[in-house]
Amino acid sequence: MQPTASHFVNGAYLEDTAGAPIPVIFPANGEQIARVHAATPAVIEAAMASAKAAQAGWAALIGVERGRILRRAADIIRERNRELSDLETLDTGKPIQETLVADATSAADALEYFGGIAASLGGEHMQLGGDWAYTMRVPLGVCVGIGAWNYPTQIAAWKGAPALACGNTMVFKPSEQTPLCALKVAEILVEAGAPPGVFNVIQGAGLVGKALVEDPRTAKVSLTGSAATGKKVYAAAAAQMKHATMELGGKSPLIIFDDADLESAVSAAINANFYSSGQICSNGTRVFVQRGIKDAFLARLLKRTANAIIGDPRDEATNFGPMVSEEQLAITCSYIKKGISEGARLVHGGNRLNQPGAYIEPTIFADVTDDMTIAREEIFGPVMSVLDFDTEEDVLERANATEFGLSGAVFTADLTRAHRVVHAIQAGSCWINQYNLTPVELPFGGMKGSGVGRENSMAAIGHYSQLKTVYVGMSPVEAAF
Ligand code: TXE
Fold first, then answer.
1. N or C: which terminus of the chain has fewer CB atoms within 10 Å of its end residue's CB?
2. pLDDT attached to residue 436
3. 286 close to 375: Cβ distance less than 8 angstroms
């Protein structure tokens, strides 16, 4: 698992062992599987300089050429899905059952989608009487991507693909918890024909991220991470008037009405809380259940949660793996303790497994009230809070009473109510009778404290390019004197 070197800069692996060592731990057994080094100032300089040097040439390629390279990278990723999924499982601890369908494949989707539209990016023509004008869509320059540890391959591609499609270059810093997968994305892009310096990966923790954000050559920053980090990075970007996209946390509502299809609603609650051991920013961690269906919902939820197959994430039968790290497990355990001490009713799980690895049971609290810590703060672990409600009006007010606004969903058979409710939910992504599907064709991003900007879809193009307006005078210029 040991990569050729810690960083990938200017089209090749690069090492500098003077950087602080970063151990890579397989969370299922706590064993160290690799070691990389944080970027030194020399590595940061090399990455920024190579991205800067490569940008003009990359932007000068016609869109169809840039797009072809991205699409070729998508094909290579699909061919190597098994190998990349194995690596993602080792890096994150997520079950191979998930990584085979949700990680490298999602990266390939982004590269294919943005590769496909690179050729048709352009501006508009406006006729202004005899004069006329046109707009040009031009790249921003060097973009910095900073990733979280929950979807390392996907995040690298969700940021890299639209950035490169628009003619930018990128320096990407993965989370220090999961440094391996982004290196593969860089390697594959070069294999697909990307010139050296177009997509660089360097390792490190917050300080390396901070140096990249503050580098005067950086034109744009896209972060996936916690709300606290988002505020710092957004402020640092603003200080130099840089573009910024912030994909941050959430505490999203999943609202289930009495008339909902019970099995689908239970499936959604399971997916929205236990997929990837609950480590997903858009999770529906506040499950509001209308009182008439509460007992039936809880009974079915408990029965089905008991079927979770907790085990080695490398085993294809496993559908619930460890958390990413001991630290994240400790955070989750402290929230479970708070839930119990604040009076929530623990109806399933709650315990760390008595075996090596960062394993905790899928955990369900019932009778949760809005004021409890577990209903207010993002846990980022497999902890579901079930809250009761009576009326639509009541639940909407409570659903929106949060600093976050990433996602939300409604389960109901009533068509008009479904639309009315999602229109009222203050969140960037909403689902009706579904949860957490985020195909590349759709914008993804948060309202309120969950962030700014959007990833994926044509919306991302707006965040990785800028418009230049050109007015064309066709007549002699007149002046007052
Ligand atoms: O995130 P951080 P962490 C939440 C989740 C989790 C908590 C902490 O609740 O428990 O965040 O996780 C880089 N300038 N989410 O510590 O610190 C950092 O190196 C520039 C939700 O992993 O936000 C990493 O690459 N960069 C989330 C990235 O920012 C900085 C996913 C995220 O780190 C920096 C992950 C700085 N000053 C965690 N400080 C989601 N919404 O998906 C840190 N970084």
1. C
2. 97
3. yes
Catalytic (active site) residue 281: yes
Virtual CA dihedral for 201, 206, 212, 218, nearest 10 degrees? 100
Assigned token pair, 434: 């579904």
Measured CA to CA, the distance from residue 58 to residue 61 in angstroms comes to: 6
CB 423 within 8 A of CB 400: no
- 160-171 pLDDT per residue, tens: 999 999 999 999
Mutate to test the pocket of ligand 1, among 146, 218, 374 (most ligand atoms within 8 A of CB): 146
Q: Whose Cα sits closest to atom 8 in ligand 1?
A: 226
Q: Render pLDDT for 353-375 as a digit per residue (tens, 0 to 9).
A: 999 999 999 999 999 999 999 99
Amino acid 215: pLDDT:
98
Tell me the β-bridge partners of 10: none
Dihedral angle sign, alpha carbons of residues 193, 198, 201, 202: positive
247 a catalytic residue: yes
Show the tokens assigned to 236: 């640092």
Ligand 1 centroid to Cα of residue 148, in Å, is 6
Catalytic residue among 281, 294, 333, 392: 281
Query: Which has the closest alpha carbon to 241: 42, 69, 466, 27?
Result: 466
Q: How many CB atoms lie within 10 A of CB 351?
A: 12
For residues 377 and 228, the answer to whether their CB atoms sit within 8 Å is no
Task: Give yes or no for residue 149 CB within 6 A of ligand 1.
Answer: yes
Residues 438 and 282: beta-carbon distance below 8 Å: yes
pTM of the model: 0.97
> HSE of 68 in the Cβ direction (CA atoms, 13 Å)?
8
Separation of 226 CA from ligand 1 center, angstroms? 5
Sheet holding 429-432, edge to edge: 345-348, 363-366, 383-389, 286-290, 253-256, 407-411, 429-432
**What ligand 1 atom has the least distance to the C-alpha of 228?**
23
Q: Please confirm, yes or no, whether 65 is among the known catalytic residues.
A: no
* φ/ψ of residue 470, rounded to 5: -125, 115
| 159 annotated active-site | yes
The dihedrals phi and psi of 476, each to the nearest 5 degrees, come to -60, 145
* Closest protein CA for atom 44 of ligand 1: 206
Q: How far apart are CA 326 and CA 359, in angstroms?
A: 9
Answer yes or no: are the C-beta atoms of 53 and 9 closer than 8 Å: no
Phi-psi label, residue 241: left if phi above 0, alpha if psi -120 to 50, beta otherwise: left
Give the other-Cβ count within 10 Å of 232's Cβ: 16
CA 87 to chain centre: 18
**CB 330 near ligand 1, within 6 Å:** no
